[in-house]
Amino acid sequence: MDAIEVKDLSKSFEGLKAVDSVSFSVHTSEIFGFLGPNGAGKTTTVRMLTGVIKPDSGEARVMGRDIESETKRVKEVLGVLPETANAYPDLTAWGNLMLIASLYGIPRREGERRATTLLKEFGIYERRSSKVKGFSKGMKQRLMLSMALVSDPEVLFLDEPTSGLDVQSARAIRQRIKELQEESKTVFLTSHNMQEVGELCDRVGIINKGKMVTVDSPEHLRTRIGGSVAVEVRLDRAVDLSRLDFKVERAGDTYRIYTTEPHDVIRAIVGFATLNGLKILSLNVQPPSLEDVFVKLTGGSNGQ
Ligand SMILES: Nc1ncnc2c1ncn2[C@@H]1O[C@H](COP(=O)(O)OP(=O)(O)O)[C@@H](O)[C@H]1O
Ligand SMILES: [Mg+2]
């Protein structure tokens, strides 16, 4: 049995198909990345899978439990870090954790033990008696992840957990996500950050305009877009770079070469420019952007 099984799930808002017949499964103890630009349908999918809203059609199971007919049993096994803050601003960090613990029916002593461990782990124990409304975005997010973990859930839904965070908080959260896997948890992580899913996830599902584009490992996705980086060069006049032994794309006055060996490409470009008396106006190496992936996987349409 897979931890999450989704079949033809759809949801529309006022005629707009936010999620359009999406199917995929997430294996147990896997970190699954759900990658897509703003408005792709990630949050809507998370909200359906966590029992917040009902799908229009299709079905899904979390740990074998049907999200519609067994919503309560689904909620028992999952922890959620939602997109928008769910901590009560007028309660303290400690108060929020105790509230969640009691909602899950965790005995008080055990709840206190877990809350202490989590708050220490996320570096907010010293601030446990402060009201959440005074917290920075990073502290709030770390608290919300603690809240998602306090019930020791089997499946975690994390909706853009590091979006807009300071470097330190983002790193602490990524580190904790990696550890979750060692604890055999299943993680469903949404992100619009290629690099983040590449670093954390075993497999990545790409969603665009409500439709699933592909599901694959980050390594495969990178090879499918033709290399792990793009070397971009601008020269002082138009030339035929196809004489170089690389596949070259041109956008305006910029030539772009996708490669796993940027060193070789840069050397060849510099050699070519020197030989032909060309001036290099700029030369840089770019990690593949989400746009690159979409352009490659959707045949250049970017789903527009
Ligand atoms: N409650 C809602 N009412 C109306 N439209 C919504 C609602 N929730 C989401 N949408 C729309 O559905 C689409 C997908 O949104 P969302 O799932 O939040 O995307 P993502 O999380 O990938 O950024 C967007 O066009 C958004 O405007
Ligand atoms: Mg979202």
Overview of this protein structure:
It contains ten helices and 14 strands. Helix 3 (93-103) crosses helix 4 and helix 5 runs parallel beside helix 6 (167-182). The chain is elongated. By secondary structure, the protein is of the alpha/beta class. It has helices at 42-49, 71-77, 93-103, 108-121, 137-149, 167-182, 194-200, 218-224, 262-275, 290-297, and strands spanning 4-13, 16-26, 31-35, 57-62, 65-66, 78-81, 155-159, 186-191, 203-208, 211-216, 229-235, 248-251, 254-259, 280-286. The protein has two domains: 4-216, 3-Layer(aba) Sandwich (Rossmann fold); 229-286. The relative contact order is 0.14. Strand 4 (57-62) and strand 5 (65-66) form a beta hairpin. Bound molecules: adenosine-5'-diphosphate (ADP) and magnesium ion (MG). Magnesium ion (MG) binds at residues 42-43, 83, 159-160.
In short:
This protein has 304 residues and is an alpha/beta fold. It has helices at 42-49, 71-77, 93-103, 108-121, 137-149, 167-182, 194-200, 218-224, 262-275, 290-297; strands at residues 4-13, 16-26, 31-35, 57-62, 65-66, 78-81, 155-159, 186-191, 203-208, 211-216, 229-235, 248-251, 254-259, 280-286.
User: How many independent structural domains?
Assistant: 2
Output the CATH topology of the largest domain: Rossmann fold
Percent range for helical residues? Answer: 25-40%
CATH class of the largest domain: Alpha Beta
User: What structural class do you assign from the helix and strand content?
Assistant: alpha/beta
Instruction: Estimate the global geometry from the Cα principal axes.
Output: elongated
Rg? 23 Å
Listing every helix as H and every strand as E from the N terminus to the C terminus, the arrangement reads EEEHEEHEHHHEHEHEEHEEEHEH
